[in-house]
Here is the input.
Amino acid sequence: MRLHLHEPTALVGLWAGSRAIALAEGNRVYERRFGHVYLVCADGQSAEELLDVLRARLGNDLETERRVPRVELAKINRLRLGRLYGWDRS
Here is the structure.
């Protein structure tokens, strides 16, 4: 998972302890399994929810996991455009 400091995330304070280790290891496993970086829209999700999403996605087949990152990227882009243009998020 690549994080950007300007992104709204639920990851504040996450990078200490077992969650950070679990996310880092999960990311390595994901990249080995699918051949590309793990992408998720983290907005509004807790650290535990993010770990659950990662673990669930590791169980996806290759075809499913080709589609899921596109959906996640669309969510991220909507959030970014919403911030840029002041759109309501609801």
Remarks:
- The longest helix spans residues 62-85.
- Residues 18-85 form a domain with the UraD-like fold (CATH 1.10.3330.10).
- The chain is about 60% helix and 0% strand.
